[in-house]
């Protein structure tokens, strides 16, 4: 296991698995967000239900905290391996080319590192805004609908959010397929299908996330 | 054809080096890229200047010696073509052509455009072989090999070890080279006993030599003169992870 962790292939496998965990969460999160279109009661009720989930076993908010711990572990593993691999890559080419032209790498593949940084910064703000309510204009726990609409009522927050979820879409587009390749699941036969699936998932997730701030900005949600 | 060449000149490994501009007045479109450099070197020798050092050998695209970064693309603008098989007709009159050596820490510049690619030999030494008892050659059909496996193994075995994959990789990774050998041997019956230990040993050596990790951008396979597919890297990853889970 230690040897695997030391190898670049092992680190990519860790990135793939932790990324898969985060992707599953992001899909669930996006679908849950859509509850906002069914009204305040639907969204706030979902938040309440989530906190009471398996409460007799884990206590109130128990499942939520277990999920948060898992997500934090995934984020730490994903970022640690990403930074280590980026440092290795930089060390592997101490003298760069004077004239360099990318031939193949897609935009999403080239922006994985800085896109990841942008997403990480956004997540910090997002947690302070919606989860903790510290920087939220409403910031009342349990009033998820009002917190979200109050936050997106400021156009610059909505724009930052839309920028971040677009970056997330690009990240998923390369990252999801790349994870299959890193784990050795992608083969010549499956590659085309896996790339198409990754693109589809990225587009659906981005569109789902974009729908909420757009609805607030256009006055569909108030 | 008139061309303006900007060529990386570096006296030795410890020299800083710089791009030097050389105007070329009479380039034939039928010349190969290396023949064009030969003509430049003849002119430089006549002027009493030091000729440009560059690697070359077979000049028919099968040895893997020539390797030049031409206008920022390994082996130049033509796909699946080595620099020696690239002809000047693919350039336009008046073009400026920048020529640089492969750039990677494990590939130190020896002089001008020549780099030391011994790092590839270290990777091969660590597992790019099969341990077989020597003796007379076995009959060709003594060990049956399924045709699709033979084809895929042959495709990977076409690697000439030129280093273009490393040169083009944004991470300076030699994963395509390593994976080509692991795929070539790992698909054939003779390569099975050492399949997992080979993947582990070759990747370990690859990492120790200072090559970067793969980020699946596919730059390597786009410039590979032999068109080694990206799937080989997936196969190497699979062998390495499966080997680790088994032990």
Automatic annotation (TrEMBL), chain A:
Keywords: Heme, Iron, Membrane, Metal-binding, Transmembrane, Transmembrane helix. The chain crosses the membrane at residues 12-32, 65-86, 114-135, 155-172, 193-216. It holds the Pfam family Sdh_cyt. GO terms for molecular function: metal ion binding. GO terms for cellular component: membrane. It is found in: Membrane. This is Succinate dehydrogenase cytochrome b subunit. It comes from Solihabitans fulvus.
Automatic annotation (TrEMBL), chain B:
GO terms for molecular function: 2 iron, 2 sulfur cluster binding; electron transfer activity; metal ion binding. It comes from the Bacteria. Residues 1-103 form the 2Fe-2S ferredoxin-type domain. SUPFAM superfamilies: 2Fe-2S ferredoxin-like, alpha-helical ferredoxin. InterPro entries: 2Fe-2S_ferredoxin-like_sf, 2Fe-2S_ferredoxin-type, 2Fe2S_fd_BS, 4Fe4S_Fe-S-bd, 4Fe4S_Fe_S_CS, Beta-grasp_dom_sf, Helical_ferredxn, SDH/FRD_Iron-Sulfur. Coiled coil: none annotated. It holds the Pfam family Fer4_7. The keyword Iron-sulfur applies. Its cofactor is [3Fe-4S] cluster; [2Fe-2S] cluster. PROSITE patterns: 2FE2S_FER_1, 2FE2S_FER_2, 4FE4S_FER_1, 4FE4S_FER_2. Keywords: Iron, Iron-sulfur, Metal-binding. Residues 150-180 form the 4Fe-4S ferredoxin-type domain. Belongs to the succinate dehydrogenase/fumarate reductase iron-sulfur protein family. PANTHER family: SUCCINATE DEHYDROGENASE, SUCCINATE DEHYDROGENASE IRON-SULFUR PROTEIN. This is Succinate dehydrogenase/fumarate reductase iron-sulfur subunit. It comes from Solihabitans fulvus.
């Amino acid at each position: 296991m230690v040897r695997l962790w030391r190898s670049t292939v092992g680190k990519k496998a860790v990135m793939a698995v932790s990324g898969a965990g985060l992707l599953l969460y992001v899909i669930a999160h996006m679908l849950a967000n859509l509850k906002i279109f069914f009204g305040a009661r639907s969204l706030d009720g979902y938040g309440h239900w989530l906190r009471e989930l398996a409460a007799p076993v884990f206590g109130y908010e128990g499942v939520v905290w277990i999920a948060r711990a898992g997500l934090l572990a995934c984020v730490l593993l994903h970022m640690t391996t990403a930074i280590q691999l980026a440092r290795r890559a930089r060390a592997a080419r101490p003298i760069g080319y004077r004239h360099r032209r990318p031939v193949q790498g897609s935009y999403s593949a080239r922006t994985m590192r800085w896109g990841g940084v942008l997403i990480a910064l956004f997540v910090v703000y997002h947690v302070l805004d919606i989860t903790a309510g510290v920087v939220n204009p409403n910031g009342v726990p349990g009033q998820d609908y009002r917190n979200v609409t109050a936050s997106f009522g400021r156009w610059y927050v909505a724009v930052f959010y839309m920028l971040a979820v677009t970056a997330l879409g690009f990240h998923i587009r390369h990252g999801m397929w790349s994870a299959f390749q890193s784990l050795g699941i992608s083969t010549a036969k499956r590659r085309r299908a896996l790339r198409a699936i990754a693109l589809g998932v990225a587009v659906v997730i981005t569109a789902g996330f974009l729908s909420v701030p757009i609805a607030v900005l256009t006055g569909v949600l108030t | 054809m008139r061309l303006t060449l900007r060529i990386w000149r570096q006296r030795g490994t410890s020299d800083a080096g710089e791009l030097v501009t050389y105007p070329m007045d009479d380039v034939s479109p039928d010349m190969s890229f290396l023949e064009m450099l030969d003509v430049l070197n003849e002119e430089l020798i006549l002027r009493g200047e030091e000729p440009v050092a560059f690697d070359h050998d077979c000049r028919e695209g099968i040895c893997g010696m020539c390797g030049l970064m031409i206008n920022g693309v390994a082996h130049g603008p033509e796909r699946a073509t080595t620099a020696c098989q690239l002809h000047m007709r693919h350039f336009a009159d008046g073009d400026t052509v920048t020529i640089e050596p492969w750039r990677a820490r494990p590939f130190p510049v020896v002089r001008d455009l020549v780099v030391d690619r011994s790092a590839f030999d270290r990777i091969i030494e660590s597992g790019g072989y099969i341990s077989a008892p020597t003796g007379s050659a076995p009959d060709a059909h003594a060990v049956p090999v399924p045709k699709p496996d033979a084809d895929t193994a042959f495709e990977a075995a076409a690697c000439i070890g030129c280093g273009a994959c490393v040169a083009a990789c944004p991470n300076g990774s030699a994963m395509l080279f390593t994976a080509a050998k692991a795929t070539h041997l790992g698909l054939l019956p003779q390569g099975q006993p050492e399949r997992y230990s080979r993947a582990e040993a070759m990747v370990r050596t690859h990492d120790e030599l200072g090559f970067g990790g793969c980020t699946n951008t596919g730059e390597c396979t786009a410039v590979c003169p032999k068109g080694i597919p990206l799937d080989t890297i997936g196969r190497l990853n699979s062998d390495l992870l499966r080997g680790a889970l088994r032990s």
